[in-house]
Amino acid sequence: MVPQKQRALLMIVSGPAGSGKTTLRERMIEAFAPNLHRVVTATTRSMRPGEVDGVDYHFMERAAFESGIAHDAFYEYAIVHGQNYYGGLKREIRDKLSRGLDLIMNVDVQGAEVYRAAAREDPLLRGRLVTVFIMPSSLEQLRERLSDRDAGKDAEIARRLQTAEAEINEWSKFDYCFTSGSRDADFQQLAAIFTAERLRTCRAE
Length: 205
What we know:
Blueprint: E1 10-14, H1 21-31, E2 36-38, E3 42-43, E4 58-59, H2 62-70, E5 74-80, E6 84-89, H3 90-98, E7 102-106, H4 109-121, E8 129-135, H5 139-149, H6 154-168, E9 176-179, H7 183-198
Parallel strand pairs: 1-7, 1-8, 2-7, 3-4, 8-9
Antiparallel strand pairs: 3-6, 5-6
């Protein structure tokens, strides 16, 4: 018997700032290339030196982004730091899933909830969504990581820790949750989840 082809999945990774989501996402993409891809987010912020439109972000004018909101072009979107829009374009995700490409993206707990709701209504997302929450071993662990990254920004660190406490309370809504340890240990956990999900019989076409 020839194994049936598996439907592509969308893995969402959430966790407080400092939990290592971005590092894990990039390591996953490298490890599972060429079939695992990052969801390229749309944004209204300015392009930085070295960035490429359509690769790092889909760069959009504010008016175009807001037109997209009005025309239901996004699964989810938010204004970050009260300045720029960021959002997940439906066409970006649907096109890649339709071509059999597995996807991974980082979103906050509110964004993960939006995708869960979308997966209940959107036939293309239904049965493809996998959500993972990275639980810090302690708030002190988060404080240390944030201090290394945001040295001297005490007010910002305090704000992020307050947000983290609220996010941690949402862990049980995710399909998977693991406690963060070393970078290697976290990668092994996430890679094991991804591998297992790719082998689930419910994903066979």
